[in-house]
Amino acid sequence: MKRSAILAFSGGLDTSVTVRYLQEKHNMDVITVTVDVGQGENQKQIETKAKKLGVKKHYIIDARAEFVNNFIFPSLKANALYQKKYCLATALARPLIAQKIVQVAKKEKAAALAHGSSGKGNDQVRFDITMRALSNLPIIAPVRDMNLDRKTELKFAKKHGIKIDATAKKYSIDQNLWGRSIEGGVLEDPYKEPPDDVFLWVKTKNLPDKPQYLEITFVKGIPTAVDGKKMKPIELIKYINKKAGSCGIGIVDHIEDRVVGIKSREIYETPAAACLIEAHSDLEKMVLTKHETKFKSMVDEEWAWLVYSGLWEDPLKSDLDMFIDQTQKRVTGAVKLKMYKGSVRVVGRSSRFSLYSHDIATYGTGSTFDQKLAKGFVELWGMQSTEANKLLKKR
Ligand code: ARG
Fold first, then answer.
1. Which domains does the chain have, with CATH numbers?
2. Ligand 1 centroid from CA 90, angstroms
3. How far apart are CA 208 and CA 340, in angstroms?
4. Which residue stretches of the chain have pLDDT < 70?
5. How many angstroms separate the Cα of 82 from the Cα of each of 79, 111, 239, 301, 306?
6. CB-based burial label for 354 (10 Å; 0-12, 13-18, 19+)
7. Could you read off the pLDDT of 22-41 as tens digits, one per residue?
8. Does ligand 1 have an atom closer than 6 angstroms to the CB of 140?
9. Is the minimum distance from the CB of 266 to ligand 1 under 6 angstroms?
10. Best of 88, 94, 170, 181 to mutate for ligand 1, by most ligand atoms within 8 A of CB?
């Protein structure tokens, strides 16, 4: 009996080529697994592609609810934006896919784990490190191991009758509920504006002339209703992706530092993430103290960096999660966003845990804030700076 490898399979160029290489160069049976994280692709079609490649078995795992609850929502609580821009859509899905691959490998008593990542990207880091945290099986990644480039892969695919669709020939794309990542082709010239055929979720032309509003309700840091309607997590994200995308919201054009040291140019379409992170972080500012807000922003940055860098299973990540969860207890309330021709901003927020006090803040009459107290405070607050400046002047 042949040994088998469990491969995370998307039906794209890299993973299709990987199936063949595992069969031919490694003489293995391949069991493919497609983890549905809301790619919006036809799972049956992917299964057909896998079967055409002669795989021994194909698994379809619907992990969308798990993806939202255990990966997307924790990232929202952390306002996670790598290098202040990238909402980690791809990065979040990788450890979940790796977890599922390991589960199937145990069930199938497989001899190896496999993925289609190249040696240039971040996904190899995320797959490898998560897989190693959960399993001792060897990891095979033919694209990386054989130093393959896209041109060679396309040739190989053609020779083996593997069909690759037109967009996949032009760009390298990864998508899930939280966002769409597009790179390669003309996008590799960082000065060139991305052509319109890059965008699928965000409208770039004929945008509505009237502003649109989004009203988001949060309970303990998690969005539970939009525009007055209670929604289940998957439905809620889809709803915002659609509505905000149609207002031109969510395009990110990013020069990014990969784990392996390469600078890359990536385009993202992330309408729901853009709106939810903006709304969530605004609400936090209203309910957390200035000390919590300042410290949390450092934790948030570290969280995003860890997850980007493939360290989902590192104990530090769960340490940070505990702190973040503690801060979310009061992040309950509503935020109103205004969207107009590609821009989005918060125009209103309210919470029963709000630390904003109209009485204290008002410039109007009748405030209980005693301004006279401020004089002495300011003097002490600036004392060292004042002394230092006096000294510098003397010199
Ligand atoms: N740069 C992003 C990340 O490292 C996306 C990578 C996948 N992108 C792609 N177009 N295949 O998470």
1. 4-170 (3.40.50.620), 176-350 (3.90.1260.10)
2. 6
3. 8
4. none
5. 10, 35, 24, 7, 9
6. middle
7. 999 999 999 999 999 999 88
8. no
9. yes
10. 181
Q: How far is CA 212 from the centre of its chain?
A: 25
Residue 192, classified by CB atoms within 10 Å of its CB into exposed (0-12), middle (13-18) or buried (19+), is exposed
| 14 classed as catalytic | yes
The backbone torsions φ and ψ at residue 39, rounded to the nearest 5 degrees and listed phi first, read -60, -25
Model confidence over 96-152: pLDDT tens digits? Answer: 999 999 999 999 999 999 999 999 999 999 999 999 999 999 999 999 999 999 899
CA of 64 to the centre of ligand 1 (A): 19
Instruction: Give the C-alpha separation, 260 to 283, whole Å.
Output: 35
Amino acid identity of residue 79, one-letter, is: N
Kindly state the tokens that stand for 331. Answer: 């992040």
Q: Which long-range contacts (CB under 8 A, 24 or more apart) does 60-65 make?
A: 60/34, 60/36, 61/33, 61/34, 61/35, 61/36, 61/100, 62/36, 63/35, 63/36, 63/37, 63/96, 63/100, 64/36, 64/37, 64/38, 64/177, 64/234, 65/233, 65/234
Angle at 56 between CA 176 and CA 110, to 5 degrees: 80
- C-alpha angle 283/288/289, rounded to 5°? 140
